[in-house]
Amino acid sequence: MEFRSLKKQYKANKDTIDSAIFEVIANTNFISGTQVSKLEEKLADYVGVKHCITCANGTDALTLALMAWNIGIGDAVFVPNFTFFSSGEVVSFSKATPIFVDVDYDTCNIDVNKLEIAIESVLMAGKLKPKAIIAVDLFGQPADYKSIRAIADKYELFILEDGAQSFGGQIGNRKACSYGDISTTSFFPMKPFGCFGDGGAVFTDDECLANLIRSYCVHGKGSMKYDNIRIGVNSRLDTIQAAVLLAKFDTFVNFELPRVNELANYYSKSLKSRLGNLVSLPLIKEGYFSSWAQYTIKVEEPFKRDELQDYLRKSGIPTFVYYPKPMDSQQAFAYLQGMVPTQKLEISHELCDRVLSLPISPYMEKSEIDEIVDAIKMFYDEGVK
Ligand SMILES: *Cc1c(COP(=O)(O)O)cnc(C)c1O
Question: For the segment 143-177, what is each residue's pLDDT rounded down to a tens digit?
């Protein structure tokens, strides 16, 4: 069993993807081919924002956003303590200071009450200037943007939506990657809308920011590539990756998203009926729609997550722990200790001990989910004995 059936996905879409790739090879327009701008138009239209700028990966997309806002030394950026390393890494990389905020146990997204407490304590300490909130849509479910926007307005902060895991998700009728002043996503192969290598994109309604980012991602270009008006980076999406994404787009929207939601519902129904409250299921809030980057359960006491993971591995079922370490425990951020006001981050620490992501992909069969649920049930039956 694959954790995220990428081989099956390729097989199901092989003809369109192959011809799209070979067209790029035949035309040898490997960099900035027409497919790139075509993809950008399509994605901006889908997400419902004015501008989409593709780049080399989701981490660069976040960095480009911070560059566009000129965030750096002396600035505080608020980041959930439970997320992929990138979300905080980019802040330190930009020479600003990440302030880690605890998350909500049920959704695993940033806890908006604790966010406000964190902002207040930075203001009180008086050393750093609060500038932005990086809200992460963890596992595919958008964060609570209504509350986050109210807080951002109150303290005059930018919102950077890290939608690396939520492309295709939505709240009501509005799509993920449209909630930030700048939003970003990743096309890393395992993400909901993945390409065949690294890739990323930035979304914004603001034309000035869009122009700045278009410049920063090609060496700070001015009127053309050899007219350089600012220090930038080299971060472009390859034409081949754009062609792959274009070839996959219709299937993603019309088949993969509805199907992965059907499967996630099936998972939750089966787990609930067979296991009751022994495991906590992913909670999708009313009116929210997840793109299911991960289907993540929580193994509640007295059972041990690592023992369940071992048991499933022996039964041939691959699982992953996203994430085993919270941001504040990463050695790379040890330098922050004593420098910034900290809050208790107990929920994120608890999540790191309890979460387990089970195989999910639009190309799974329900019978595979039955097999996984059977194995989990057997683990608990043996444990109870
Ligand atoms: C994957 C991911 C990123 C980084 O994307 P890359 O394309 O791998 O650089 C950033 N944030 C989150 C939440 C992610 O899951």
Answer: 999 999 999 999 999 999 999 999 999 999 999 99
Distance of alpha carbon 337 from alpha carbon 246, whole angstroms: 45
Instruction: State the average pLDDT over residues 223-249.
Output: 96
285 secondary structure, DSSP code? P
DSSP 132: E
**Structure token pair of residue 297:** 């359960």
Q: Where are the beta strands (DSSP E) in 286-341?
A: 288-289, 295-299
H/E run at residue 17: helix 14-27
What is the pTM (predicted TM-score) of this model?
0.97
**Tokens 């239209």 label which residue?**
45
DSSP 320-340: B-S-SS-GGG-GGGGGGTTTS
Q: How far is the CA of 184 from the centre of ligand 1 (A)?
A: 9
> For the CA atoms of 105, 109, 113, 115, what is the dihedral angle to 10 degrees?
130
> Phi/psi class of residue 247: alpha, beta or left (left: φ > 0; alpha: ψ in -120 to 50)?
alpha
Token pair in block for residue 367? 């019978």
- What's residue 385's pLDDT? 44
Task: From 85, 90, 162, 233, give the residue whose CB has the most ligand 1 atoms within 8 Å, as the site to mutate.
Answer: 162
pLDDT grade for 384, boundaries at 50, 70 and 90: low
